[in-house]
Amino acid sequence: MRNVLHIYGVEQEHGDAIIVGDRESLTELRDAITMALEGLAAQQITPFVNDGEAYDVYVALAPEVDQGFPSPYVDSWCTEQDSIKFAELWDWVREGLDKAK
Prior knowledge:
Elements: E1 5-8, E2 18-21, H1 23-37, E3 43-45, E4 57-59, H2 80-100
Antiparallel strand pairs: 1-2, 3-4
């Protein structure tokens, strides 16, 4: 299988994130990051997990990442406030994707 990318999120404070992929998926991720850094709106890539399931990864350049952003932790203790912030962040990313069209 090609274009396999696994992104293991930060579970809680001071945790680690791990990105593992084949050359194709890492190159695609790099290119999406480069395009976002060049101000070309939000970018979307669609890699696969090693079980064959596809998923979308969104890359966006934020003017400033501040306290208004939700915490990136994936552990179940995520607060309701962070859930609301994540919904707002997702709306912001979608707006960037619309600009790219």
